[in-house]
Amino acid sequence: MSDKLKVLITGASGYIASQMLKEYRDRYDLTLIDAIDTGRDGNRVDGVQIVDLIDTERSGYEQYFTRQDAVIHLAYKRSSPGGVYGTDVPHIDRFATEHENVQMANNVYRAAYDAGVKRVVVASSNHAADWYEHALIHNRKKEMVFEDEVPLSDNFYGWAKAAYELLAYPYACGAFGRKLEIVQVRIGNPRETDADELLAHADELHGGTGQSTYKRGLGAHFSERDLRQLFIKAIETPDIENEHGVPWLIVYGISANTRAFWSLENARRVLGYDPQDDSELKFTDRIIQHLTVDDPAGPGKVGD
């Protein structure tokens, strides 16, 4: 019998899972589920079983949660095929899809709770509290967003992620009986920081320029090895209870970036997260090319 931890991954055909699977297949005894079994490249992801986690009739998938030690919940329904944010759907029209994502999160919590799973690690997002970023950080009225601040978002995507976090609390605090341990990872930018792409993309919704978008990308960078490490820590750290005895934790998922504007305090203190990368060092040549200015103070972390 294997002594590996048994881990269920939802959304196992997705982009975030693709960064995990190569290492996690060796580290854990994995069960993989998703609404589709092909990745972005169109190739089939080995071992993925097709499941509709939005369905409130949990009998169709509750068997996958049985005898699991932990669940990594990555599954997410997009508002449209245009991208994570549903770029061809107006922001104000995205509530219905995001409501389904909240329903899916509850289905995962309930199935994990009923099956006796010890811990659920959830792919939340920095957008759960992105109002602070858009209204304050970019306008240099605030230096850092902390994990314990009230989650405030100015869009339904972020609202749904904040809802995941708060929805988990009744399961974690023991209101229903046992305590389901839950870690919410507010993922930053889990992609290579492409200067040309970011410089060409102005944040039209919030009035950002290409340069501010690039600097934001540097602050949000989350390298593959740091992502894998943080989720491993989130699964394997023995004790995540807070001072009130509740095993409910929010951490930001970024690398040790010089331009960071999200706190890594919880990730470091509770999980022992030790990020290995810093976008300022990793992309030095590109930064010098695009962000060098005459003013010795230079442009700010994010704003122009």
Tell me the layout of helices and strands:
Elements: E1 6-10, H1 15-27, E2 29-34, E3 48-50, E4 70-73, H2 95-115, E5 119-125, H3 130-137, H4 156-173, E6 181-187, H5 195-199, H6 210-220, H7 224-236, E7 248-253, H8 265-271, H9 279-282, H10 284-291
Helix pairs in contact: 1-7, 2-4
Short characterization:
The protein is an alpha/beta fold and 304 residues long. It is built from ten helices and seven strands.
If you had to describe this structure to a student in words, what would you say it looks like?
By secondary structure, the chain is an alpha/beta fold. It contains 10 helices and 7 strands. It has helices at 15-27, 95-115, 130-137, 156-173, 195-199, 210-220, 224-236, 265-271, 279-282, 284-291, and strands at 6-10, 29-34, 48-50, 70-73, 119-125, 181-187, 248-253. A 7-stranded parallel β-sheet has the order 3-2-1-4-5-6-7, with helices on both faces. Helix 2 links the parallel strand 4 (70-73) and strand 5. The termini are far apart.
Briefly note the structural class of the backbone. alpha/beta
Largest sheet: 7 strands, parallel
Radius of gyration: 19 Å
Molecular shape? globular
Number of beta-strand segments: 7
| Helix content, binned percent | 25-40%
How far apart are the first and last residues' alpha carbons, in Å?
A: 57 Å
